[in-house]
Structures are given as structure tokens and as C-alpha cells.
Design brief:
Elements lengths: L17 E8 L10 E7 L12 E4 L2 E4 L13 E3 L2 E3 L6 H13 L8 E14 L7 E2 L17 E14 L6 H16 L4 H7 L1 E6 L3 H5 L5 E3 H8 L7 E8 H6 L9 H9 L1 H8 L5 H14 L12
Parallel strand pairs: 1-9, 10-11
Antiparallel strand pairs: 1-2, 1-6, 2-5, 2-12, 3-4, 7-8, 7-9, 10-12
């Protein structure tokens, strides 16, 4: 449950924009009868060697890492759109191109990204610590549910920009890797065509020994191959990449465990726009499912802000 506790002092800080991209395309090997979406699995901040989220101090009281607690926590592990924060020296769209390439290895052509959504969330910036760490919290239309003692923190506006872009499956290194994994999975019985057509395929990255590399099959991919073949460079942040039938995303509206719920909702919201970009007719049953779900969400006090329009 998302909380909205009034903080003791609210001081508007600098903006810290984030950019994400809904990557869509035709992938007949995965979903021959519908459009597909390419997503990544993010590593939890508590496991990320470049971040320190396990314990943090709020109001002078150490709080254990607890993403479901009232004090929030570091970003949890989850499947969602590739993307991240904008660097100070780049524009919003430029950040989108960079993040997609770094996390998925997919190079979007110039002018290939279409802005489809923008909304705001808030994050807490620790100003007591010289490192100026920024902590992830559940988003909302009001400051986050964290009480901050005067002088210990600052609430930063975090605009979210969501782009839509089309990928060319036949020209991607990802196709070769996924097709090989499908072939191996079908051969060894690790995968079944009906399950793949319904749920897609996700390939996990890991550090492989020589023996493991020789015996590798199916849904595991050594990080060396990821870096060399796909061009994914943010291996400390991304642990897997997947291609999913778009209809599978709608199933996650009611069962989003292991997925970023807000990303699922955004993907479903922009399904019709994605279909238009790829020149196909949207599945009206999916459109109706989302609208029915959205109407129920709008009755809640903690509705996601982008569902209101």
C-alpha cells in the first residue's frame, strides 16, 4: 500500500528527471500473432555494488532496508522498461537513447522515440551525508510517506518521461541469441512453444566458468556474451533481458509480483499507441480489460497519477 504521511518540512529541491522507453516490435519467434515488448530486469539497489541502500538514517534513527515498510527503501528488483536518470549534460530524449542502448543493447534510430507520457513523483535526498545519496520511495502526487527531521533531508521532484520506440528485430543481435536459446530450450525440454507464445522468454545474465559455458543452454547467458554480443554495458544494474507478447503484460495488472507495477500500468495504457506505431489493429479485448481495471483503480485514494488522464 502506498502511503502519504505529511513530512515535517517540505523544501523543493532540484529536479532529477527519469526517462524510460516502451520498446515494441514484431517478434514472430515469440509472438507470431501480436506485437511484442522488450523489457529488462533491474537489480535491487540493496544488491547493487554502486549503491548503499541496506541501512539508511532518517531523522537520526537507523532504518533497515524494507521496501514495503512505511519508510520506503531502495529500488527493488523487478522487470520493467529500460531507462534511468538523466545526466546533467544531456537532454531528456538524449538520455532515453543512452539508457536504452546501455541496458538493452538496442540502438534506436534518430527521431525514433515518441514521448507518450509525463508525470511526477518524489524522492528523498539525504543532505546530511556528503555523498548526497538519493533514495527511491513509492511515488505519488504528494510528498513521500517519510518523516524528515529539520535539516536532514530534502524532497526532490522526479519527473518521469515515458517514450515509445520501435525496434527492428531482424537487425538486432538479440535475435540470434534468443533464437539459439529457443532452439536449445525446445531440444532439451526446458521450454515449450505454447508457454513461450503466452509468456515470452527472459534470458538471465550470470558470470560463467569455463565448464558452465561449455554446458550452457536455454535461458542463461554469460555476462561476457552480453557485453560482447548485445552491447549491454550496465551489467551492475541489469540482470536479464526479455521479450514478451504484449498480452502477457495485461496479465500482470492483477499479478505483478516480480514486475514494476507502475511500468505494467504504463505499458497497458499505451498499448493502442504501440499498435498504431507498428501498423496493427489493437486487440479490443485487451483494451477493454485495461479500461475496466483503470476505472476500478480510479476509485482508490492512492491511484497512480498517470491513470487519471
Amino acid at each position: 500500500m502506498r502511503r502519504s504521511v505529511k513530512i515535517k518540512e517540505f523544501r523543493k529541491g532540484d529536479e532529477s528527471p527519469s526517462v524510460f522507453c516502451d520498446l515494441v516490435g514484431h517478434v514472430p519467434e515469440i509472438a507470431p500473432d501480436e506485437i511484442s515488448v522488450c523489457l529488462v530486469r533491474n537489480v535491487a539497489d540493496s544488491l547493487n555494488p554502486s549503491s548503499e541502500y541496506c541501512v539508511r538514517e532518517l531523522g537520526g534513527v537507523p532504518r533497515p532496508y524494507d521496501p514495503k515498510g512505511p519508510y520506503g527503501g531502495g529500488k527493488p528488483e523487478g522487470i520493467g522498461m529500460p531507462g534511468g536518470g538523466r545526466n546533467d549534460d544531456e537532454g531528456i530524449e538524449e538520455a532515453g537513447y543512452r539508457e536504452v542502448l546501455a541496458e538493452s543493447g538496442i540502438k534506436i534510430p534518430s527521431f525514433g522515440m515518441e514521448l507518450v507520457d509525463k508525470y511526477k513523483k518524489f524522492i528523498l535526498q539525504d543532505t546530511k551525508n556528503k555523498t548526497q545519496k538519493v533514495f527511491w520511495v513509492s511515488f505519488g502526487t504528494t510528498p513521500p510517506g517519510i518523516e524528515v527531521r529539520e535539516g536532514t533531508g530534502n524532497v526532490v521532484q522526479n519527473p518521469f518521461y515515458v517514450f515509445l520506440a520501435k525496434f527492428a528485430w531482424d537487425d538486432m543481435p538479440l535475435k540470434k541469441i534468443f533464437c539459439q536459446r529457443l532452439q536449445d530450450g525446445y531440444r532439451y525440454g526446458d521450454l515449450h512453444p505454447d508457454v513461450v507464445r503466452k509468456e515470452g522468454l527472459i534470458v538471465r545474465f550470470f558470470t560463467a566458468s569455463k565448464e558452465e559455458r561449455e554446458n550452457l543452454r536455454s535461458t542463461l547467458l554469460p555476462v561476457e556474451d552480453v557485453a560482447n554480443e548485445l552491447g549491454v554495458v550496465e551489467l551492475n544494474e541489469i540482470s536479464a533481458i526479455g521479450v514478451f507478447p504484449y498480452s502477457h503484460i495485461f496479465d500482470k495488472l492483477t499479478d505483478s509480483e516480480g514486475w514494476y507495477f507502475s511500468h505494467v500500468a504504463l505499458l497497458c495504457k499505451h498499448y493502442q499507441t504501440a499498435c498504431k506505431k507498428l501498423g496493427v489493429e489493437p486487440n479490443q479485448e485487451l483494451v477493454g480489460r485495461f479500461e475496466q481495471w483503470r476505472q476500478e483503480e480510479l476509485k482508490k485514494d492512492d491511484v497512480l497519477p498517470f491513470l487519471k488522464y
